[in-house]
Design a protein that fits this description.
6-stranded parallel beta sheet; about 25% strand; elongated; Gfo/Idh/MocA family oxidoreductase; Gfo/Idh/MocA-like_OxRdtase_N; NAD(P)-bd_dom_sf
């Protein structure tokens, strides 16, 4: 197995570029080295030189054209993602794009074609697939304790009025591509990529500045399997629990830090037969009782999602492992986003 490091160039040293990508890569010194950064702010360039001893550039275009980095991470504002990814792929770089990868399915199709032409990898930074609470929920599914999942409800509630660029559609802003996209991606990994889904979407611009939505409600019904329900909103003064999952034998509920599983063993009960006659004593139901079991799962902190994501990418680039976040899976999420925007007149 190859062990040589992958040199990375980071485009944009804002909250994501510096606080997430650079920080995560710093924790993987045997696999990656931050060799170059691009940011228009001199003080950010200086900070990067001091921490990484790397090359610095004023613009992303300069880094792509002049640096010999192997992997480019794009952490610039959303509306610049597709064009910069095209340039990096044309220069023969592997590319990680902060979510959203692009502004539409059509742009993602162009990036997939460019990736195939260059023979390099393009992937999106969907590190919430490694969120410990999501992985814990999937483990409960696999155990069979709650039976067949019927409804998976994911909520991201808070009350906040924003006025930054993320409130502007022209900059790729909005609650859907900014926050909800991570959790939409989580839920759609539970549905085969080729399976059709029905969608009911409600996007609204309520309290924040700009013209982008700050409230998202999506209900997704796959051809088979559980209904997926997502609420991601900045207008909820009394937040509900992050997870609520209904199964045929029990439920999962809770927060990213603690989940409660409650289930019963239906196989231990006698079979039921429908009775068409009038119930005796006007009593409905069969009067049976259930022996409930409960488990509380303490979910670990999600502070290793970025490192886990990049470690998987390293294994793909150096050792030929399957790509963790495939362009096809990103495209399917973007398709739902496009449909949601069209339904709510936010296209």
């Amino acid at each position: 197995m190859a062990t040589d490091k992958i040199s990375v160039g980071i485009l944009g040293l804002g909250r994501s570029g510096w606080g997430i990508h650079a920080k995560g890569l710093e924790d993987l010194p045997e696999q990656f080295t931050v060799a170059a950064v691009a940011d228009p702010m001199p003080e950010r360039q200086q900070e990067a030189r001091e921490k990484f001893g790397c090359e610095t550039y004023d613009t992303p275009e300069q880094l792509i054209a002049e640096s010999d980095v192997e992997l480019v991470t794009i952490a610039t504002p959303s509306h610049t993602h597709a064009a910069l990814a095209q340039q990096a792929l044309a220069a023969g770089k592997h590319v990680v794009v902060e979510k959203p990868m692009a502004g539409s399915v059509a742009e993602i199709d162009e990036l997939i074609a460019a990736s195939e032409k260059s023979g390099t990898i393009i992937t999106a930074f969907q590190n919430q697939r490694l969120d410990p609470s999501f992985l814990a929920v999937k483990d409960v599914f696999d155990s069979g304790r709650i039976g067949e999942p019927v409804l998976i409800r994911r909520t991201v509630h808070r009350f906040q009025r924003r006025n930054d660029w993320q409130t502007l559609r022209g900059h790729g802003g909005g609650e859907l591509p900014n926050t909800a996209l991570h959790f939409l991606d989580q839920l759609l990994t539970l549905v085969p990529v080729e399976m059709p889904v029905e969608l009911l979407a409600d996007l609204r611009q309520l309290n924040s500045a700009g013209d982008a939505e700050d409230h998202v409600k999506l209900t997704i019904r796959p051809e088979s399997g559980p209904v997926l329900d997502l609420e991601s909103s900045m207008v909820v003064a009394a937040p509900q629990e992050s997870w609520f999952v209904v199964g045929t034998k029990g439920t999962i509920s809770g927060t990213p830090g603690e989940l409660t599983v409650k289930w019963t063993d239906l196989d231990a009960l006698p079979d039921l037969e429908a009775n068409p006659n009038t119930p005796e004593g006007r009593a409905y139901g069969n009067g049976e009782t259930y022996e409930w079991q409960t488990e509380t799962i303490d979910v670990p902190s999600p502070n290793q999602r970025t490192q886990g994501y990049y470690s998987k990418l390293y294994d793909t680039i150096r050792n030929g492992a399957e790509l963790f976040v495939t362009p096809a899976s990103v495209r399917r999420v973007a398709e739902v986003v496009d449909r949601a925007r069209a339904q709510s007149n936010f296209a």
